[in-house]
């Protein structure tokens, strides 16, 4: 812990900025309808392509919609995609990894093959397949991003389980006749969650970035929906003439992903000081 404190002190200011940014984005997105912002869908033909001003802090787009309002409301969509995708990856990947690591043998080999196969399926490819079958939608993007993150959770949970299962308290519980399910639930799973939480924190940033990329390709369905990735693709051709159309959602994506990575790094150092 003494070795950890100087490191945390050195990054304290970046960590504070990251936490403050995430709080700002999260609170703004959560309470967006209560902030008195312009309707993100409202079109004002006489306000088309207005530069940033007191009335429109981030300017307006080619349909006269307020960019600031769309960025704030877009945070609701982007954060929701990240949470749903990471929740799906956590719910499937962690049990898969814990089971594989604890049981070992043929079960471990079979599940490891499944994990490796999933590692070869990029989110973009999954989304393209789902769009071809089901059509473009935000739900398909969530599903594709979530499936693409499952191997990361499974691998971390498996690696941690391989270490935890050799601890004395697990061996003692097994000797006393505890069932496999009880061992996994009461003794193994709680002790592998710490590194998985780090993966989840960083995974949120990765999920938001992946979903923005898929939305940029037009795979998220309704293009009028305020979403950071779709805002980039809708305005990319106007970047040189009206850069504010791209800068605002770009900063939102970059700041959110970077902040999640910084918080994840800090959690990793705090939860595993041996890595220092």
TrEMBL record:
Membrane-topology descriptor: Multi-pass membrane protein
This protein's UniProt keywords: Cell membrane, Membrane, Transmembrane, Transmembrane helix, Transport
GO biological process assignments: transmembrane transport
Localization (cell): Cell membrane
Segments crossing the lipid bilayer: 12-35, 77-98, 110-134, 192-221, 242-263
Pfam families, A to Z: BPD_transp_1
Domain ABC transmembrane type-1: 75-264
UniProt-listed InterPro entries: BP-dependent_transpt_permease, MetI-like, MetI-like_sf
GO cellular component: plasma membrane
Similarity comment: Belongs to the binding-protein-dependent transport system permease family.
Protein known as: Glutathione transport system permease protein GsiD
Organism, scientific name: Kolteria novifilia
Gene for this chain: gsiD
